[in-house]
TrEMBL record:
This is Sporulation protein. PANTHER family: SPORULATION-CONTROL PROTEIN SPO0M (PTHR40053). InterPro entries: Spore_0_M. It holds the Pfam family Spo0M. It comes from Paenibacillus faecis. It comes from the Bacteria.
Amino acid sequence: MSFVNKLLASVGIGSAKVDTVLYRDQLIPGEPVEGVVRIKGGHVEQTIDSIYLQLFTTYERKSNDSTITSHAELGSYPLTRPFTLKPDEAKEVPFSFTLPLDTPLTLGKTRVWVQTGLDIKNAVDPSDRDYIAISPTPLVSAFLNAVQSLGFQLHYANCEQASGMFRNRLPFVQEFEFVPVNGVNRQRLDELEVVFLPQADGIKVIMEIDRRSRGLSGFLAEAMDMDETKISLFVTDRDIPNLPQMIQSCISRFS
């Protein structure tokens, strides 16, 4: 390669381009993410140190008195070893990786995407972003449906910075906030918050029951956050037929 071409490559002029094609862009956690990465050489020969995929999502965290939207990496997947890409050369690299079980659902402001990059020595790193719609697993879907069958309506869902009992491998959890709109729970609760922590053989569910305040004592309890109770339960696919009864039993005990 001539000195001029090396210089062009080093500043990214005429560099390689990358485009990822996903075979499916609507998935549930645990399913394979499959597709192909297409690379097109630029005007000069370049050494590609690696092609890699990263899975990202967004979450909100507090900083002083402000709310900041941050990115969290859910997984990283290297695809190739170093190779040389000639001018105008086209390559395709097929891939497949498993969508992590703790991938959040794409509800509200939450977004999930695959980001593709090329590591090119001394050059601009071209990248490509492809969004995925994430739907709930059958067990999570059954739990959400069971909550709604008890007279609750989903009011809010968001990924927020995790702490304490919620902390896992990721810096956030996805919270689902329900409000009672009919039935016996409308008189008992202000809201019900649900967090799912997926396990290999089921799901640990954290529920925060926010009781409706009654009278002066209830007002004082609410002011001191004493009207909130956190409980956890572990559910599997075998529990799906009994989920409404299980959830209502927990609510009745603490409301």
